[in-house]
Amino acid sequence: MPDDTLIHDPAGGLPRLLEIMRRLRDPDTGCPWDIEQDFDSIAPYTIEESYEVADAIARKDWPELEGELGDLLLQTVYHTQMGAEAGLFDFESVVKSVADKMVARHPHVFGDESRDKSAEQQTADWEKIKAAERAGKAQERTLDGVATGLPALTRAVKLQKRAARVGFDWPETTQVIAKIQEEAAELVEARDTLTQAEIDEEFGDLMFVMANLGRHLGVDPETALRQANAKFTRRFEGVEDALAARGKLPSESNLAEMDSLWDAVKAGEKMPK
Predict the structure, then answer these.
(1) Domain-embedded: residue 257
(2) Sign of dihedral through CA atoms 49, 54, 58, 61?
(3) R_g of the chain computed on alpha carbons
(4) Coil, helix or strand for 37?
(5) Can you list the alpha helix ranges (DSSP code H) found in the chain?
(6) Exposed / middle / buried, residue 34 (Cβ in 10 Å: 0-12, 13-18, 19+)
(7) Of 70, 85, 105, which residue is a domain's last?
(8) 150: nearest Cα among 197, 219, 220, 201
(9) Which residues form the NTP pyrophosphohydrolase MazG-like domain (predicted)?
(10) pLDDT category, 190, cuts 50, 70, 90?
(11) Among 87, 97, 109, 248, fewest CB within 10 Å belongs to which?
């Protein structure tokens, strides 16, 4: 029988969590579901947990954030356990790697460089260090290293930032807006004359330029869209509440009525408290 002392020790800390994961993955005595998992099957959970952390922060739900950060930490522990089983890496090597990276990327804190820099200069220095790291990994192209698994809007902005560093960027916001108008006109044309695949392509082009406009305006498109989603949810629930007060469900209403209630909810949000 394995020794469960550490498993059941509330003060066991990180060693306890690492041991729990090792036991869950034990091919003889572990959990059948956990044993079957691999990097690919766990990756979607890692992404989901990251979003749940961001959601708790957006809602300023600090007790919830504590739990979500634990769930996110578990994802790191899960991947490192699988890495150890495959002889690729382990938790200690992952910790060493990120610690070494932070020291190397902050010479103004842990080295001889002066801390007397603007935020802009520190950002520029950070990018130079990352570029050198990419060169060491044989990532020689401008767009190398921009993760393909990022949310599409976030990746679009990162790709655009990389291209902008080598001068491939519109200097004026008005030029971006003109491009949006061009892409919107092409999408309207595509709707009437092109195939669905071509419509998809034109829509993607429009979204990409919209992300570029956000970058030029200092707006994170992913954050802005999340906020718009939250606003839509809040206002539509207000419409539902107003309909419920009339003894109706949305399916028993019509667009004209719901649109009128939407306007009322919107106006109520703008009234001084």
Answers:
(1) yes
(2) positive
(3) 25
(4) coil
(5) 13-24, 32-36, 39-58, 62-85, 91-105, 107-110, 119-136, 152-165, 173-193, 196-217, 221-245, 255-270
(6) middle
(7) 105
(8) 220
(9) 37-110
(10) confident
(11) 87
> If 0-12 CB within 10 Å is exposed, 13-18 middle and 19+ buried, where does residue 42 land?
middle
Classify the C-alpha dihedral 97-102-105-110 as positive or negative.
negative
Q: In this predicted model, what pLDDT tens digit does every residue of 137-150 receive, in sequence order?
A: 666 788 888 888 88
**Contact indicator for 109, 147 with CB cutoff of 8 Å:** no
171-176 — which CB contacts under 8 Å span 24+ positions?
A: 173/213, 173/216, 173/217, 176/209, 176/212, 176/213, 176/216
The Cβ of residue 261 has, within 10 Å, a number of other Cβ atoms equal to 22
Considering its fold, how many domains does the chain have in total?
Answer: 2
Token pair listed for 272:
């001084």
What are residue 2's phi and psi, to 5 degrees? -70, 155
